[in-house]
Write a structure and sequence with these properties.
The chain is built from 6 helices and 9 strands. It is of the alpha+beta class. Among the domains are: 32 residues, no CATH class; 59 residues, 2-Layer Sandwich (Phosphorylase Kinase, domain 1), CATH 3.30.200.210. The chain is elongated and about 90 Å long. About 6% of the residues have low confidence. Bound molecules: iron/sulfur cluster (SF4). Iron/sulfur cluster binds next to helix 3.
Length: 190
């Protein structure tokens, strides 16, 4: 049997009125936020994506992340998140997320698994090699044709991320300057 547009709208209105009288949806809505996170441990953190620095609540059960949402008590975002922040759960809990060091040697077409100690030693070695090769103690200024002390390397750049807090950024930039690196950039600025 067919149904006209008017009959369809009348049926929908009656159903909505019946639900409103029974009170069921409003009770369910009021309880939903509490039951959804009942018994879970909540930890606060900051979204790693951009310089806005929205606050997050990470809910865990038995040490595993089961939910991530905006922190309603955070002064910056007051519970709201943009689409990137809203999808953070899928970044944290994702079987396609790479969690091991995979290394492809120059000229090779194959990635091999390495451990963190190996990776840290390798990074330190390559940084030292690059710095030694490119460090300049002085540089000629073409305008006045004088040699000035610069103590820098242009062979490396440092790139920070929005997941770093103030103290980490301070240490990170100090380390860069101590290495003689003048090119510092930040992921959230790009
Ligand atoms: S990426 Fe979105 S949720 Fe994350 S800090 Fe920036 S604005 Fe906030």
């Amino acid at each position: 049997m067919g149904m006209s547009r008017r009959q369809f709208l009348q049926g929908g209105a009656l159903t909505a009125a019946g639900i409103a009288l029974s009170g069921t949806p409003s009770e369910a809505n009021a309880d939903a936020p509490v039951t959804r996170i009942k018994g879970l441990k909540a930890s606060t953190t900051i979204c790693p994506y951009c310089a806005v620095g929205c606050g997050l609540l990470v809910h865990t059960k038995d040490g595993k992340i089961v939910n991530i949402e905006g922190d309603p008590k955070h002064p910056i975002n007051q519970g709201a998140l943009c689409s990137k922040g809203s999808s953070l759960y899928q970044v944290a809990v994702n079987d396609r997320r790479l969690q091991k060091i995979m290394y492809r040697a120059p000229g090779s077409d194959t990635f091999v698994e390495k451990n963190w100690d190996w990776a840290m030693d390798r990074i330190a070695l390559r940084m030292k090699e690059t710095r030694d090769k490119t460090f300049k103690a002085t540089e000629l200024n073409k305008k006045d044709n004088k040699e000035y002390v610069v103590n820098r390397t242009d062979g490396m750049a440092f790139f920070g991320g929005a997941g770093l807090d103030n103290e980490e950024c301070y240490l990170w930039s100090k380390f860069a300057r101590a290495m003689g690196v003048g090119q510092l950039e930040h992921q959230a600025r790009l």
